[in-house]
Amino acid sequence: MQKNLKWKLLLILAVMLIALYWTVSPSERGEGWFSRINLGLDLRGGIHLVLQVMTDEALQQEINQDAEKIALDLRAKGITLESSRRSGGLSLEVTGVDSARESEVRAYLGAGYERRYTNRSRTIEGKTTYTLTLLGAESRRLQESTVRQALETVRRRVDALGVAEPTLQIYGSSGQEVQDQIIVELPGVDDPERVKELIGRTAQLELRLVKRENGGPFTSIESAVQANSGRIPEGWEILPSRDDRGQQQSRLEYLVVSSVPTITGGHLKNARRDVDGNGLPAVGFYLNAEGADIFTRTSEQHIGDRLAIVLDKVVVSAPVINERLGADNIIHGQFTVQQAEDLAMLLRSGALPASLRVLEERTVGASLGNDSIQAGLMAWAIGFGLVVLGMVVYYRRSGWNAVLCLVGNLVLLMGFMGAVGATLTLPGIAGVLLTIGMAVDANILIFERIREEMRSGKTVRASIDDGFKRAFLTIFDSNTTTLIAAAFLFQFGTGPIRGFAVTLTVGLVANLFTAVWMSHRFFDWMLGDRKVETLSI
Amino acid sequence: MEILRDVSIDWLGKKWIFLSISFVLLAVGVGAYIVHGGLAYGIDFTGGTIIYLKFDKTPDIDAIRSALRPESVGTTIIQQYDTREMNSVVVRMQMVFETEQGVDAGQKAVRQLLSSAFDPQNVGRGELDFNSVGLGTVAQFIRNADPDNLQAQNKTAQEAEDHYQALARSLLDYRDRTKDGLVNSLDELAGVPGSSAAVVDSLRKGFYTGSFAVKGVESVGAVVGANLRRRASLAVGLSLLGMLVYIGFRFKPVYGVAAVIALFHDVLITLGLFAVTGKEISLIVVAAILTLVGYSVNDTIVIFDRVRENLPRYRRQPISEVLNLSINQTLSRTVMTSGMTFLSVLALFVFGGEVLNAFSFALVIGIIAGTYSTIALASPIVVAWTRMQEDRPKRKTS
Asked: pTM for the whole thing?
């Protein structure tokens, strides 16, 4: 019995040492105590964002492109049509098609678009209208791929910002209420405005020609329309041009530019912060082979015209083309150094496939996180102290046994957190504190039972053994119900609340080891081989 | 030490007193609910914005209130919250500012309005508020200013970068950790390790120290809120169901029903006190309620367990006697356990800080209610049910 006990005590010691190792040993994060414990955003400071990917935009753009393509193809075949455009929602309409050539059109649409759209047509007086509606499965596929692309772009931007240990995940699935969302967690980031700006910018770069006659700039849309004799001709559109000078309210001007971009973000190869001829901050960009080719040809044909550099549908600058241009170019635009740096980074990381909308933002400044740690530790220390006091006063020497188990429980809990890299959040600290309260419950149940057994006239040793045996079922039942609640908690919550559920669960499981098994061994040890008459309980 | 040994209190004989107490408490809760027009849901569920601010001196709440005019930011609730200096203020806005870009328009408006009210001399100038800038901005600024003249000493760009990055970090650590987020004057920064009068002089060219700092922001959009509310009710409902099934399975179905009614009572009492105090129900309060469900069922289980053990032994006794006996036998444990947990949660409530305040409040209430409801509610239900079962065969024979 005694020899056996020695081994058991050694086992306890070994388990505790392993847990202690995982708690306080240095890690990649640094040398400090508890560096293995992963602190949640609410404690170390940082930003939590829930972003909605506006996937409808991507769908509409896709449909617009298809509509344009259909018009081009049909006209190339010599088939007349009035228009081909997206008609509200997720369908497109090809109107006024020569009905004499219906079979040809049907064959064309069937071959290229059958997998994507359902097709209905009606013919009135020799003109046929085809209505193509995007298929459900197809729209879901497009939505999902848009979200994935957006996530990748955001990831590239976050990486470029140099955030350590960012978390990015897609949230919600199609067909459900919550869909197409991205959760971004950036620990330690202390500049939320800049980060939101950088993550949320679509960063769609386009180079478009400015209309040679009456191209602007105009002070209002109306005057732009008036200057073009009341109607903007097909193939051109009006875009605002921002003039960002320092902090002042930006003045808006309007330019008439080609509705078809010469160069798009897809032609970009690289971008970097640069300086212009006057030594002012600018953004240099480098085109790929296809882009350079188009750009050289276009610039040759349009010397003397203006070229609008358009970012997210706003003209940044519109310099005059003075010479044939190549792959290497520069954007001027009254940037600060930081703005130029950021824009270059955005261009490098690529455009978002659809715009993002912030649904939820939680920013915890480093000082608030620090406050929470202080308050949490304070509450924890006082709570722990009170429990220790209560146990020792009420159960005397046996109370110390319970305290030892409590410490063991905490070491196991922390060791587990350190080993698996679980995150400690502010509610998690509360969970640890609550675990203390619940962990002593097991000790109390056992001690009360031992007292009862002793009162009924059993020997000390028999009382202890029976006390542990009888209390076990109760402890098991009560821990199980708490675990059930913790499981729902985990399922329901995000971030901080999950941290709470995790500490609660691990604490309760460790409790079975410490309060039920370890504590029993300590009693055995305390009694030794002697014949004991009394127990300090 | 031992108290509550060999007690013999007739708990079940007092069931009408208990039931009246519960009834009164629930009625008060319902009354408050009606008077206040429902529970005060936090922004997690309604959508809205919470901003944690710290000022350089105890701020005049009326000045803040008049700066945040309702016509520009909607109704706001402004409270001071820290206990030592009373410099911290939390602003809650129920109105959801959801623009095309997102939910953060409200906090931007608040920042702007407060800046023009408290730092009018600095608004519109090119300088930045040192109390609201991030590490990147400070590091870049002092690298460009180069107050330590590293360029003259032929250091490489990388060395300069590292040097000033470390300096910026220690400046901001001083602000965030030593000064709790707010520096009163740039002069203080000369004493920071690695810093010097030259560093402060160069900072002066680009920064001022604003009289308040934003320590944290939570903004939740209306869509997210509605979804969370549904999930919260679902989680609480399902966990109650989980308890019903587990206890029904481990004991008898009626014990499960009794335990769940007691739990339901605890949740209602807690919510009732939230209605009375007007405290906000936030995500974390729901977490507390779920914990409460898991915790307060423990008491019920301990007593039911003892009943299960005592039933064969005291077969002749009426069920109410067995329950009384079981409650009394475990009373010492009940008081000790609840007492210990109560103490730790109380510590959390008193010292745990603003963020955990409502959470620990829910637990403090819940622990009391949970302990009480087992004796006052779950036990009488079991007795009443068992008596009904016993009566039935008699009625048949007569």
From this structure: 0.79
